[in-house]
Amino acid sequence: MVEKVKFRVFRYRPEDGGRGFYKEYEVPVKKGMTILDGLIYIKENIDPTLSVRYSCRMAICGSCGVRVNGVETLACHTQVLELRRRTIRVEPMRNYPLVKDLVTDMTPLFRKQKALMTWLIRRDTVEQENPTKQYLQSEEELERYLQFTYCIQCGLCYSACPVVSTFPDFYGPQPLMKAYRYYADSRDEGGEERVRLVDRFEGVWRCHFAGSCSAVCPKGVDPALAIQLLRRSALKG
Amino acid sequence: MKERDLMLLHYITGIGILVFGSIHIATVFFTYPLQDTIWETTLRFDSIPYAVLPVYRNALLAASLFGLLLCTTVHAMNGLRTIIAELIGARKRWVEALLVAVGVFLMVYGTRTILIAHALV
Questions:
Q1: The domain A3-104: what is its CATH number?
Q2: What is the ipTM of this complex?
Q3: Where do the structural domains in chain A lie, given as residue ranges?
Q4: B116: contact with A, CB 8 A cutoff
Q5: For position B49, what pLDDT does the model report?
Q6: Which residues of chain A fall short of a pLDDT of 70?
Q7: For residue range B45-81, what is the model confidence (pLDDT) as tens digits?
Q8: B89 close to A (CB below 8 A)
Q9: What fold does the segment set B3-117 form as a domain?
Q10: CA angle (A26 as vertex; A21, A29 as ends), nearest 5
Q11: Are the CB atoms for A195 and A210 separated by under 8 Å?
Q12: Residues pairing with A59 in the sheet
């Protein structure tokens, strides 16, 4: 059965220099249709000027993060009929510069990731250049950081974070979670340096533990937990 | 001072406020002129500090009041530092210097008051 649902989509054109506006589109919806399907329908059949970023359409690439009825979600991961609304408001993510319509510039997120050195740090450069063995880990060592590797870097947590909204210098949940992911990795040798980086005014201490980052994560990752664990590590020195 | 030390101090002083604050409230409660009715006491509000203050001639109670002053000042100034930075969206050195000055003033003025109460005859 096909029913009509009204999509109230935020539109923004940088060349207009305005604050953006909402435009309504009526979309025929059937069971299984996602918000992304609806947006693609609008783009293909009603308004080709609508800009939306997407790629995999199956909640893996993390490209299509938007706010649906005020809540951060992946457009490809949210079914229209499950929302049980006649009108659906679709807006871009918060806390990012807006590029156009629903497309945001993810640079702040990636810049902060880089600042926290979110990669494996090894001191054995000779071994790195000429590897002779594998880096083995026990199950317990893997468990320490496993859930944090499920992050797809969609940036929804960063958008939902109330602290980033008021204090943009705060590193935010995703970069801090990523820092913990490497800090907890037994193969990593940059622990001290990483703790020094997160133990700054803009670091872990500014988290209010609102938990909205963990609530919106489409992969069930718990960045709020990672921040608390990082705090513990920072206190231990 | 490192951020972790400041925040550790923030947590410790928070617990300190609970402990010393409880002692302070209990002290004031038990030295309240209970023989009067609430209405009469309210009418004679000016006399209450004079009924309570002599209790602080006791060195331990005076020390606990000083503990409350210290914990409240440190906790409040550090809390304000965070709130102001988040409100204006950036960290300002002059704001932090001003908060330190306010904190020092509160400590000096509060210590003076406690010493006066302690020496009250």
A1: 3.10.20.30
A2: 0.74
A3: 3-104, 107-236
A4: no
A5: 64
A6: 1
A7: 566 666 677 788 889 999 999 999 999 999 999 999 9
A8: yes
A9: 3 helical TM bundles of succinate and fumarate reductases (1.20.1300)
A10: 130
A11: no
A12: none
